[in-house]
Amino acid sequence: MRQHVNPLSHFFQLPLSLPSKSILFKNSHHPIHLDIGSAKGEFLIELAVKNPNWNFVGLEIRESLVSSSEKKRKQVGLQNLRFLYCNVNISLDEWLSDLDLEQLKRVSIQFPDPWFKRKHLKRRVLNKSLLYSIARSMSKDGELFIQSDIFKLIEYMSNVIDDSIYFDRKVFKGLKWLEQNPYQVSTDRELFVLKQNLPIYRAMYIRNSALFIN
Fold first, then answer.
1. What residue spans define the domains of the chain?
2. The pTM is what?
């Protein structure tokens, strides 16, 4: 079962000042992978162990999951990973402005809340405003990776990106959807879906290197 949180409720509309990269990381100049909706955090924990020369940030709107993820991070002793609590559509833009030029290399949005009802579509995490913030801060040729087990949701997300001028879709073997997770690390939800032998829809986008965004 998904633990839905309404991001449009008044409580989640309050902006939060997130810690700067110099406070979060000892080696604050390292490239950054940002995971939006980090859930239980296992995906980033495994990636951070395998990639010590990268910094990883997991953003999650469910505060209890951030607390548990941070507890696991500290147990492993990872200094290149932090989990932060916030509503990305309210608090992310200011944090991104603190990054060095070309520092944001990768962004992943995996299995976000689907919000099926038409009147709730505005609650979905990916929208034009968030996409613009990501594109403006991301390095040229940076990666934006999305995946979901719900076709209508991934179709909506890919349409938002395809309709923009910021990213170009990367096609593998002529296929629209990727067969495998390119990072070779799975989220909890991904493992659950795979065990059910159900399809997962994945897409990789590359930041348009010819486009400069003010």
1. 30-207
2. 0.89
